[in-house]
Design a protein that fits this description.
It contains 3 helices and 9 strands. The chain is of the alpha+beta class. Residues 1-20 form the signal peptide.
Length: 218
């Protein structure tokens, strides 16, 4: 019961904040990817234009809950976002969200609020895990093109180094054993305890006796 009350309180707090921004808030799993889709969504929500004639439709993530996206009609002037940033809802305001950690798709130039659809990486989230798809460590659910994480790459490199060292050590040990085989010219290789002869310490055998002289003919 207390858990449900807490969830309801958080949701009511979130929407009480975002409602200061505009109207027509709707939870969605993806945002428009083209200007025509933006216009269709704007008509559906009955969004208007600001004093400069810019479409006030917006589709953004929330800083405190990125398991879904919010589309709505913004009631203010459509401003500009600095390069290297996306846009998100935070504490009832629109704020920049740094995307320096994105593997790709981070805006490289300034852009207007209504141009956010041109940068889908800012709006692509995986609702199940609640993370940016373009984030290098985001799980790969439903996103086969996600890149290997930095930690995973480091682990692969480290394991490769250990394996290479093992192979080099094994080859050196094998060569050492081959070069150290016993031969009669290596008297100390198989030396035993004191008092025991080694193969090279054995006394030579006595020469065979000389043959008898041939009998005389006299």
């Amino acid at each position: 019961m207390n858990g449900n009350v807490t969830i309801l309180f958080l949701l009511s707090t979130l929407f009480s904040h975002v409602e200061l921004l505009g109207h027509g808030f709707t939870e969605v799993t993806e945002c428009p990817k083209s200007e025509s889709e933006v216009k269709e969504a704007s008509v559906r929500l009955r969004c208007g234009n600001d004093t400069n004639g810019n479409n006030q439709y917006m589709c953004l993530r929330s800083r405190y809950n990125i398991h879904y996206l919010l589309e709505f009609c913004y009631d203010g002037e459509m401003g500009i976002v600095d390069k290297g940033n996306c846009l998100e809802i935070s504490d009832g305001e629109l704020k920049n969200h740094s995307c320096y950690y994105f593997s790709e798709g981070c805006p490289e130039t300034k852009f207007w609020f209504y141009e956010l659809y041109k940068y889908p990486a800012c709006q692509n989230i995986i609702t199940r895990s609640g993370c940016d798809i373009s984030y290098v460590d985001c799980p790969t659910h439903n996103y086969p093109a996600a890149r290997v994480s930095a930690f995973g790459l480091f682990s692969i490199v480290l394991c490769s180094i250990f394996f290479l060292c093992f192979v080099i050590g094994f080859i050196k040990a094998k060569r050492h054993l081959k070069g150290g085989k016993w031969s009669p010219q290596s008297p100390d290789l198989f030396s035993m305890e004191a008092g025991v002869y080694t193969p090279t310490q054995l006394e030579p055998s006595s020469p065979p006796p000389a043959p008898p002289p041939p009998p005389s003919n006299t």
